[in-house]
Amino acid sequence: MRISFSDVGFSYDTQPILRDFYLDIPSAQKVAIVGVSGIGKSTILSLASGLSRPSHGHITVSEQAPEIVLQEGRIGFLFQTPALFPWLTCRENVSLPSKIAGVQIKTVEQSSQLSTEQAMTMAGIEHAADKYPHELSGGMRARAALAVQYYHQPELMLLDEPFANVDDIMKQALLRKLAISPLYAVQTIVMVTHNIMDAVKFGDRVVVLNRTGGDLVHVCLDIETGFGLDALTENLIEVETEIREALQ
Questions:
Q1: How many Å apart are CA 133 and CA 229, to the nearest integer?
Q2: How far, in Å, CA of 247 to CA of 116, rounded?
Q3: pLDDT tens digits for 32-87?
Q4: pTM, 2 dp
């Protein structure tokens, strides 16, 4: 599912954040977006999802308006705070997308639809299926939110620092679990993060945001990566250094 930003502008109230912003993400690419706090990383995800609208320019997702793709149930989210309904059990949260009246979940391959139990097992929360979110640790809540996406199987996944509140061991485990989704190979995934090393190891490409005069955001570095989660090479360190320098 290709994402295209063309000449996009966006403002908070009267404060312009984006102007003449361009970004193209090919279908099935895994992209990490890096930038300092408040630079607009989450805004870009919000625009790509159709939850926010640009003041000018064009954004398309799979050659359609993002809000249409969102309404079709083809976009999934993982947030820093897991989006779980507190009055529902883990099992009920996972199965909720298929029960929302009037919403038709569309996936790349309907035949690959997992059962609720399979989705929870893949995420490692099958033993907590009947527990409520307040009964779970932060890491288990993150796993439950991931299970929702396993079950939903969206074509586009937007990750807004979803593992920022868990320890590094749990974070690495969750990133690996993300990669075992049945549709991972064909999903387009965009993750925003402050962690440069996570960004470098995460996927195919890192997009670095910085500011120009007037505090407008632009892409100051766009670099191919593809090292993998277990990589530890001299090239990886060189890329990390290049990104740090671009952020200064």
A1: 29
A2: 42
A3: 999 888 788 888 999 999 999 999 999 999 999 999 999 888 898 888 888 899 99
A4: 0.85
